Amino acid sequence: MHNAGIKPYLDQGENMKVLWHREHWNAALISTLTVSAILRILWAVAVPVHPVSDSFAYDVFAQNLAKGIGYAWGPGNLTAHWPVGTSFIYSVLYRIFGFTYTPIVVFNILISLGTIWLSMALARHWFNERVAIITGLVFTFWPSQIEFTSVLGSELIFNFFLLVWLAVWELAPLNRWAKAFLIGVLAAATCYIRPVALVLPVVFCFIEILRERKYFLPVARVAIILLTMAVLIAPWSIRNTRLFGRFVQISTNGGVNFWEGNNPTSNGKTEDLPPDAARMQEADRDIYLGNIAKAYVRQYPGRFIMRTLKKAVLLYDHETIGVHWNPGLAERYGDRVVRPLKLLNDLYWWLVLALGLIGSGVLATQRGIWATITSIPILMWLYFTALYAVFVVQDRYHFPALPFIAMLAGVALNAFAQQKATQKAPAVVAAG
Q1: How many CB atoms within 10 Å of residue 296?
Q2: What are the two backbone dihedrals, phi and then psi, of residue 269, each rounded to the nearest 5 degrees?
Q3: CB 191 within 8 A of CB 233
Q4: What pTM does this model have?
Q5: Is residue 150 part of a domain?
Q6: 148 within some domain
Q7: Nearest Cα to 315, choosing from 222, 229, 386, 244?
Q8: What is the pLDDT of residues 218-267, one digit of tens each?
Q9: Bridge-partner residues for 393, per DSSP?
Q10: Rounded alpha-carbon distances, angstroms, from residue 57 to 54, 62, 64, 90, 276
Q11: By percentage, how much of the chain surpasses pLDDT 90?
Q12: Distance from C-alpha of 303 to C-alpha of 49, rounded to nearest angstrom
């Protein structure tokens, strides 16, 4: 009788605890997204859009798509050097709102907020609520992520699609077969932004096999993903193959990128094309330079290995692309703002990178080395590092790993906070 009388009060207490946690989480999420939005809006107002480099190309292609000219530099000059996805998205905005950058900036702000929200949701699922909140804060104040608000690039879009893909896989209340089909659709969309995601379903298959201790069902689900991707990418591949007279799946820059990072004079980063290749039709150039790079790797495998390791380091040595790709900064405020902003970018990046590495060590201590290496954040980080290190590196090429580095930085900061709380606890007890 005594226990029966107390139980309703215990249940009510548990419900109140759950409600408090939910309200605390919602408040933290809304506050984080609000601050993130304010910072990005302020940047958008302060810095004009001025497309350069790849951003210039995306803009040209988007405008020509919107005009009905096609994915081209101009009438009759069709291309597939860059994947079509980014320019297609911008072209839709041009068709709806006209040729103004404002809708693209608003779009960049929205997908930035979506990226932060999804990063927090996944961090909460993989770790805990405090790690998730820290992850959101790290992303909120990240200089390069704020600066890309005014950049017409694929980086923000790719990260958003990648995280939607992961969120569906981990969090969507669907049966696994429906989920496999939906992931196939999202994976195809992600590859249209950047083809570096083409092999990711194999990584997912590996994770599913480890989780389920089975082979057939994970392989079958990944087969559905790959089949869906193939069907959705096929129309673009057919267009390219007809255009160039040889099979081109998504873009004609794979061989070029491989050559840039693997030739006798390469420093591992992007470089100008040799004059003979620059005059070639782009699909032929891609094959030509790719073959040169493959021959070089076969002839000097030791140099390839050492250069790949070097590129894995160079990939993370700085992060100033957000300043470099915003020439509107210097135009409006003068060159005096460029160097301090680059320094701020690098300092923030090195701090978060160091925390991400520490967080990886914390995970290894808590969960063991194998469980850490096979965790999704670490696998994603390793995947993009290995892929770009084999090809060519720039600081923006580490952007796909940023959500996972932010989560691991959250793990590190959470561990520091817990350690500090533990150290204070004996003093509190003694004082009592």
Answers
A1: 18
A2: -110, 175
A3: yes
A4: 0.92
A5: yes
A6: yes
A7: 386
A8: 999 999 999 999 999 999 999 999 999 999 999 999 999 999 999 998 88
A9: 269
A10: 5, 8, 11, 12, 22
A11: 82
A12: 41
Q: Give the pLDDT of residue 170.
A: 93
pLDDT tens-digit readout, 266-321: 888 877 888 888 889 999 999 999 999 999 999 999 999 999 999 999 999 999 99
Query: Total structural domains in the chain?
Result: 1
* CB environment 245-261: b (16+ within 10 A), e (fewer): eeebbbbbbbbbbbbbb
Q: Which residues pair with 72 in a beta bridge?
A: 78
Place of tokens 């060519």: 392
Would the CA dihedral through 332, 337, 339, 343 be positive or negative? negative
Quote the domain boundaries for residue 279.
Answer: 2-413
Tell me how far apart the alpha carbons of residues 233 and 239 are, in angstroms, rounded to a whole number. Answer: 10
Task: Give the Cα separation of 192 and 210 in Å (integer).
Answer: 29
314 located within any domain: yes
Phi-psi region of 334 (alpha: psi -120 to 50; beta: other; left: phi over 0): left
Alpha-carbon distance of 404 to 381, in angstroms, equals 7
d(CA 223, CA 220): 5
Residues 6+ apart with CB under 8 A from 41: 109
- Asked whether residue 424 is assigned to any structural domain, the reply reads no
- Region of 394 (left: φ > 0; alpha: ψ -120 to 50; beta: rest) is beta
